[in-house]
Amino acid sequence: MTDPAIAANGLRKSYGDKTVLDGVDLAVPEGTIFSLLGPNGAGKTTAVKVLSTLISPDPASGRIRVGGHDLTTAPQAVRAAIGVTGQFSAVDGLITGEENMLLMADLHHLSRLEGRQVTAELLERFDLTEAAKKPASTYSGGMKRRLDIAMTLVGNPRIIFLDEPTTGLDPRSRHTMWQIIRELVSDGVTVFLTTQYLEEADELADRIAVLNDGKIAAQGTAEELKRLIPGGHVRLRFTDPAAYQSAASALREVTCDDESLTLQLPSDGSQRELRSILDRLDSNGIEADELTVHTPDLDDVFFALTGGTAIPTQPKEAAR
Ligand SMILES: Nc1ncnc2c1ncn2[C@@H]1O[C@H](COP(=O)(O)OP(=O)(O)OP(=O)(O)O)[C@@H](O)[C@H]1O
């Protein structure tokens, strides 16, 4: 098995006596999107800054490897493997988009010809060719973010940290950014994304970690996280009142709605639970007209995990 692109054990970071990250464990497989979610001030940006070598972890931290290199002993090698964009944008507003790109190419020691080629390709890919000769200060928020990512890609990084890449963007620009992120991953790049938009994590991330109080409160796929909290249920709708009545007495823990002939019963939506419901209906010769599964959405998960509501212990498969 290959090394994860990012692997942190017991990552700690304090500012004075304020502990921001209190033993964070993360493993991000290569070529996947990992999203770190958390309320304002949870420490997301701090995690990005540590993992991208902008600040040092506390000495009490465990082993942290990024791109196969040790963060503490080989920070230069880590820097060569990664790109960072986000709240600390590298875009210089006084010069044009093209000049920003060429400057980046210079920093990466590309020849003039290579620099021009890469710049033209990336400006085209990010739909900035038309604006290339205008000062970056005249760009819209979405254009600036696209330029920022294009500049990061000049160095051909295998791992990209995106710190809140769509904050403040309108829905169209946000969707464009999502498309860009998906394309990066389809090229094999690993993306570490922080976001305050749960929908964004749900849409993009292979795995999500929820940061709360300096610790990872839970991590897993969006589906695994949704199964962690109560609120999921199965709804059965009938057109035949007799079938509805039989189902109401055959099933346990049902809530009945006699008017709409609908039954609702709590369920985590797992295959095992659905099978047991269907088996019970079958063995009583009952057929529902409609069966729908309702799982809590990520908003419910986020509030439950970061609002102090008790949640059940995380099952093994979600903790892996
Ligand atoms: N240089 C610093 N010195 C002291 N405290 C800091 C410093 N940088 C961040 N903090 C504190 O660390 C905590 C975490 O901040 P961080 O920016 O990592 O949170 P965040 O999850 O990214 O929040 P947001 O969603 O608001 O961007 C905050 O309480 C912040 O005040």
TrEMBL record:
<dbReference type="GO" id="GO:1900753">
    <property type="term" value="P:doxorubicin transport"/>
</dbReference>
<keyword id="KW-0547">Nucleotide-binding</keyword>
<dbReference type="InterPro" id="IPR005894">
    <property type="entry name" value="DrrA"/>
</dbReference>
<keyword id="KW-0067">ATP-binding</keyword>
<dbReference type="GO" id="GO:0016887">
    <property type="term" value="F:ATP hydrolysis activity"/>
</dbReference>
<protein>
    <recommendedName>
        <fullName>ABC-type xenobiotic transporter</fullName>
        <ecNumber>7.6.2.2</ecNumber>
    </recommendedName>
</protein>
<dbReference type="Pfam" id="PF00005">
    <property type="entry name" value="ABC_tran"/>
</dbReference>
<dbReference type="GO" id="GO:0005524">
    <property type="term" value="F:ATP binding"/>
</dbReference>
<comment type="similarity">
    <text>Belongs to the ABC transporter superfamily. Drug exporter-1 (DrugE1) (TC 3.A.1.105) family.</text>
</comment>
<dbReference type="GO" id="GO:0008559">
    <property type="term" value="F:ABC-type xenobiotic transporter activity"/>
</dbReference>
<keyword id="KW-1003">Cell membrane</keyword>
<dbReference type="InterPro" id="IPR027417">
    <property type="entry name" value="P-loop_NTPase"/>
</dbReference>
<keyword id="KW-0813">Transport</keyword>
<keyword id="KW-1278">Translocase</keyword>
<keyword id="KW-0046">Antibiotic resistance</keyword>
<keyword id="KW-0472">Membrane</keyword>
<dbReference type="InterPro" id="IPR003593">
    <property type="entry name" value="AAA+_ATPase"/>
</dbReference>
<feature type="domain" description="ABC transporter">
    <location>
        <begin position="6"/>
        <end position="238"/>
    </location>
</feature>
<dbReference type="InterPro" id="IPR003439">
    <property type="entry name" value="ABC_transporter-like_ATP-bd"/>
</dbReference>
<dbReference type="InterPro" id="IPR017871">
    <property type="entry name" value="ABC_transporter-like_CS"/>
</dbReference>
<dbReference type="GO" id="GO:0005886">
    <property type="term" value="C:plasma membrane"/>
</dbReference>
<dbReference type="GO" id="GO:0043215">
    <property type="term" value="P:daunorubicin transport"/>
</dbReference>
<dbReference type="GO" id="GO:0046677">
    <property type="term" value="P:response to antibiotic"/>
</dbReference>
<dbReference type="InterPro" id="IPR050763">
    <property type="entry name" value="ABC_transporter_ATP-binding"/>
</dbReference>
